[in-house]
Structure formats: C-alpha cells, structure tokens
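For anyone still unconvinced, we reproduce a single protein record, the chain in one-letter code, the fold tokenised, and leave readers to judge:
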Amino acid sequence: MRADAQANHDRLLTVAGAVIAEQGVDVSMRDIARRAGVGLATLLRHFPTREALLEALLRTSFDELTARAAEVEKTSPPQEALVLWLREFITATTNYRGVVTAMVKAIEDPESALHTSCVAMRASGARLLTHAQAANLVRTDLDGADLFALASSLAWLSDQPGHEARAEHLFKVVLSAIMTDGAAAN
C-alpha cells in the first residue's frame, strides 16, 4: 500500500473508532469520511461496507481476547479464568456503542466480515466454560452459546445509558446463577 493510502487507512480507523465510540455502529459512513477529512469514495475504497470497517476495528481486540482466554486457561484456576475472560469480553465489547448487536448477527452469518473473529472469541469462552464445568465449578446445563448470550447481554446492558451502575451488580447476579453451589462468584 502506498504511504498516502496507508495514512488514509490509519486515519480512517482512528476516526471511525472515535466516532463509533461516541455515536454507535449505525453512524453514517459519510460522517466518518467527513471527520477523517477524506471523501466517501476514499472510505469505501478502504472499507467497502460498514461491516468491513467494524471488522478492521474489532479484529485486533477480538483476537487479543481469544489469545487472553488461552493464556488465563493455562495460568489461572478454571473459575477465575472464566470470570476474568467474561470481564474482559464485556470491556472489549463496550468500547464501541452498539457492537454487541453486530457481533450477535455476525455469529450467525458465515458471510459476515466479523464472523471468523466472533466465532473464535465465542469458542475461547466456551473452552473456559468447559474447563470450569469439568472442575464442577459451573453449571453443566450451559454451553458456549449460552455463555456468549449471557456475556453479550451484560455487555449490551453496560452500553445502555443509565444502566452502567447496575452492570456490576447484574454481573455478580449472573455469575452466582452459573456457578455451582460449591463455587463462590468473584
């Protein structure tokens, strides 16, 4: 990629990240281009769809979250690893307003630009869940899809104006619901 094209690409990602954090994933692509100081055609040349732009923004954090799951699985007790990953999942998915809905849709759509990174992230959480279940620390009637749905719900709640304060309380309620009687929620 030419130096000027790379500079445009990087500026578009930086600006898009800030705009989406402020206004949400449904913000106008034209507004993103305008704030980046480029034309809409330049934005679309780099990111032909909103989903391609989201994938570029989210891929790194989703890949880091997937790698983090593997790390905590090796270095932490099963319950602690699961709780750490859930907290980090919620943090990663609330950086950009409205991203949870895009993630949930992408999981179900193999053609989605976000599909691969979302599926890998969900699978990493499922591995932590299975590990905690094997240690009899988590209910066995949950699967990775359930965990993803619960975590996505908590992330969505954290993203709603006026509910941020309740998010930690509800996180603990959900943890107590999925932990077995012998496991204490952190």
The chain has nine helices and no strands. The longest helix spans residues 50-75.
